[in-house]
Structure prediction request, 137 residues.
Amino acid sequence: MEEDAAINALVRENESMPASRIFEIMNQHPESVRVHEIALTQLCSKTLSPHGKREVFEADGTEILVNVIRRLSNRSKIQYLACDTFANLSSDNDGNVKATIIFLQGAAAIVEAMQSHIGDIGVQTSGCRGLANLSRN
Prediction:
């Protein structure tokens, strides 16, 4: 799928697109800032509800989120959205979710994002929230 078609699909299907499909599109366009901004906005939104958190977690996207933080480290909006998605995912006391995020280097990726964007209040806030949630029992 070409980048424009991927963007159109993400926009058209918006909230109805399954998390697994969003992660698939992200994998198909690893360098596309626009694809990742739209995809991460949708994932972040999905993780605001308990059902959405489960859907995103079960789509096995933790490693993709880590890779996005590392690959597009110079993009503060992407860093903010990825950190916020991790923060939302880890906001419940689900030890399996937290352990998976930590095992797949999610906490380290959050710290990297925060170090790369020291002056960005959004990245700092979502990063701190994510780390706090991951450390809470």
The CA atoms of residues 12 and 51 lie 22 Å apart.
